[in-house]
């Protein structure tokens, strides 16, 4: 690169990235995904079920990272804008005495970095190093990797290389720090973002209207034909994708209507795997073939039996804990199958039976708790429910619930009050801006939504007329024209 220049000779490429990176073959898309497996495991949203804000941040950052990686693989691309990302990384203690990984006290740490690399391999290395994750496994992906340079690569500092300003003046190359500093300084405002993206959203929304009508028609027909309570989607698939999934379900109904009648009264959710969810919804894995769906519908009667056993188990736990209700909150917990959730309840119930914690009967009626398998102490959520680990010490559990019971009741009362205010403000916002649809991501709390709506109502935003507006944690125009804005959007001049 520039090793012949005396001022920077000691910073030749082999010191920044190992020599096998410079002279090895290009990394394929599949190899990049495989190389990033430790990273995906550390940031996967499903592991942040008890932390909805952190889960949402990781989901949004993964979407942006995916787009960046896709653009790198497009033929003929010239340059990419620096992309600032933030992730919450699961912390584990790998030096524990029993040789097992454990969550640290905090559970996770925040990492920020800005992508400005121009090929897959350097991007993968940059991501792993930024997150303090090992890169040794990348050796198996490249035949030109040598052991000694690899050891050198693991010692790379996480801090970016700081070149002297005179170097750029002398060579005429552009200082990348200037671009990055501008990215960090710039803060998007609501009005500026709508000015830049409003027309695009209107066009996408208009193009999606015929498909939206088709989706509503298919959903109504199938719900009526199969006597379903609802049809939902777990992921943010586009309208065309959703229509395709409903067409597949419709074809299956034509071929095997009798088995599908077992789903009468159920909610069907298109998601990543087939089965029954912890709350009794029928999950259809979008990657599964019709044969798997058919088998699932045929097995539904046995799932209903397990569901009744699960409800009985919840009642038994509630009785042992003074009447506190055991609930499963989809928005705040990992996606579990009915079998997985039953197993959690069973482990917790047997521990309670052995300990026989003395709770006065019905003394905790009206309160709620959720179970989780994370290694955390019990906690009280701002919404009023208790977060209880299945392996929690029974004595600590009793003390914690009794001392926090009054606060839990106050939180639950406040939650109901906020919900009423939230609904009123959402209706007022829908009316003022003539929105076609106004909704929020599940991870946006009522407190956040109330704050967002109050500030929205003070604005004049003509671009919103007739639009679909979603309150989230980031700015985005969805592929079908829905506008996503962060609940804590900012406006006015940014210093």
TrEMBL record:
<dbReference type="InterPro" id="IPR027986">
    <property type="entry name" value="TCAIM"/>
</dbReference>
<protein>
    <recommendedName>
        <fullName>T-cell activation inhibitor, mitochondrial</fullName>
    </recommendedName>
</protein>
<dbReference type="InterPro" id="IPR027989">
    <property type="entry name" value="DUF4461"/>
</dbReference>
<feature type="domain" description="DUF4460">
    <location>
        <begin position="24"/>
        <end position="133"/>
    </location>
</feature>
<feature type="coiled-coil region">
    <location>
        <begin position="404"/>
        <end position="431"/>
    </location>
</feature>
<dbReference type="GO" id="GO:0005739">
    <property type="term" value="C:mitochondrion"/>
</dbReference>
<dbReference type="Pfam" id="PF14688">
    <property type="entry name" value="DUF4461"/>
</dbReference>
<dbReference type="Pfam" id="PF14687">
    <property type="entry name" value="DUF4460"/>
</dbReference>
<feature type="domain" description="DUF4461">
    <location>
        <begin position="188"/>
        <end position="490"/>
    </location>
</feature>
<dbReference type="InterPro" id="IPR028031">
    <property type="entry name" value="DUF4460"/>
</dbReference>
<keyword id="KW-0175">Coiled coil</keyword>
């Amino acid at each position: 690169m520039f090793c012949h220049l005396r001022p920077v000779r000691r910073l030749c490429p082999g010191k920044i990235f190992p020599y096998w990176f410079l002279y090895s073959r290009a990394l394929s898309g599949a190899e990049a995904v495989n190389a990033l497996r430790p990273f995906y495991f550390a940031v996967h949203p499903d592991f942040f079920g008890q932390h909805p804000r952190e889960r949402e941040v990781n989901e949004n950052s993964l979407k942006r990272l995916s787009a960046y990686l896709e653009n790198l693989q497009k033929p003929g691309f010239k340059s990419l804008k620096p992309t600032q990302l933030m992730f919450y990384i699961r912390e584990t203690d790998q030096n524990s005495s029993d040789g097992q990984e454990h969550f640290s006290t905090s559970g996770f740490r925040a990492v920020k970095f800005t992508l400005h690399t121009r090929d897959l391999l350097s991007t993968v290395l940059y991501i792993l190093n930024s997150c303090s994750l090992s890169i040794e496994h990348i050796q198996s992906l490249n035949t030109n990797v040598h052991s000694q340079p690899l050891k050198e690569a693991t010692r790379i500092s996480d801090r970016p290389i700081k070149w002297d300003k005179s170097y750029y003046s002398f060579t005429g190359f552009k200082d990348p720090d200037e671009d990055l500093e501008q990215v960090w300084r710039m803060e998007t405002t609501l009005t500026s973002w709508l000015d830049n993206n409003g027309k695009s959203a209107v066009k996408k929304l208009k193009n999606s209207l015929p498909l939206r009508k088709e989706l509503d028609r298919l959903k109504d027909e199938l719900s009526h034909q199969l006597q379903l309570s609802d049809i939902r989607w777990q992921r943010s698939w586009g309208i065309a994708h959703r229509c395709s999934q409903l067409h597949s379900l419709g074809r299956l109904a034509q071929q095997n209507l009798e088995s599908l009648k077992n789903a009468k009264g159920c909610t069907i959710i298109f998601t990543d795997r087939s089965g029954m969810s912890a709350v009794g919804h029928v999950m259809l894995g979008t990657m599964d073939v019709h044969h798997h769906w058919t088998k699932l519908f045929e097995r539904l009667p046995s799932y209903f039996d397990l569901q009744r056993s699960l409800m009985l188990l919840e009642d038994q736990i509630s009785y042992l804990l003074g009447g506190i209700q055991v609930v499963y909150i989809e928005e705040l917990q990992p996606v579990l199958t009915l079998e997985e959730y039953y197993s959690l309840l069973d482990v917790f119930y047997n521990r309670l039976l052995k300990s026989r914690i003395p709770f006065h009967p019905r003394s905790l009626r009206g309160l709620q708790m959720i179970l989780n398998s994370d290694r955390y102490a019990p906690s009280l959520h701002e919404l009023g429910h208790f977060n209880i680990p299945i392996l929690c010490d029974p004595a600590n559990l009793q003390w914690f619930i009794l001392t926090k019971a009054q606060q839990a009741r106050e939180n639950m009362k406040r939650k109901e009050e906020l919900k009423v205010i939230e609904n009123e403000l959402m209706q007022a916002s829908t009316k003022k801006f003539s929105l076609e649809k106004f909704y929020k991501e599940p991870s946006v709390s009522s407190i956040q939504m109330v704050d967002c709506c109050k500030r929205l109502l003070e604005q004049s935003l003509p671009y919103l007329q007739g639009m679909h507006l979603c309150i989230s944690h980031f700015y985005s125009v969805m592929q079908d024209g829905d506008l996503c804005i962060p609940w804590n959007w900012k406006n006015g001049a940014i210093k």
